[in-house]
Amino acid sequence: MIIEAAINGSVGKAQNPNVPISPEEIAADAIACLDAGAAIIHNHVDTFGPDAVAAERYLRGWRPVLAARPEALIYPTVNPGPGGEIGYDHQVPLAESGLLRIAIVDPGSVNLGGRGPDGIPTGGFVYRNSYDAIAHAFGICREHALGPSIAIYEPGWLRTTLAWWDAGRLPQGAMIKLYFSTERGLIGAPFGLPPTAAALDAYLEILGDRPLPWAVSVVGGDVVAADVARLALERGGHLHLGVEFYGGQRQPTNVELVTEAVALCKAVGRPVASSPEAAELLDLPRR
To answer: Which cofactor does it need (predicted)?
Structure first.
């Protein structure tokens, strides 16, 4: 069973003082999460900008991790451009560094925002990935031998991904992450499907018998405390968790969240995968 730890995201120290932000904090937290049972680490950086600049900021946090744990799997988020457009090309220099084996691909678009005093969702931000942008992201995966880590915010994102699979064009090493949203969502307003058994059933019906590895995550909640986590483990799924999406009443560390996931896996009878085992389970391409 693969545990992926998403260790920071847009969370600030005011929300959770335990969130790692600097490259040094990211490196220390990533190593601690790997030691606790995580097989994959996902992180954001505090400096975006040109692709080479963003890539070097990632590498400052990753080099100590890979020096200490050479088999570790760690990958970035997208790199927003000056106009807010979503970019994937920073993953090219990351792949060329030899430290990247997994790439992010977000195969769709979604409204993300908060709520007004009346409870109505507000805001003008659309997280947008056109079909052309998705094709470009998958092209980077194929060209640079990267396994795509595919976030599913909405059911249509999964159907787009499966169109690539059915056409025989989905890059090797793909993993699907089903993002269930609480009413709180990412920044205040919900999206997609709630973390319920019926919602999981709906996603698995869409997935059908395609042999793609999949994981569950709860945005704005606590995936380990949600019923959907145990149901996923019982059905052969994996777990995506961490401070990035946590929305409970605590201010946990990433290690605490990973440790709780390991305990749930043991209770269900699913052994936890190491990074090398996860690479085999996902069939990540080799250079």
So the answer is: Zn(2+)
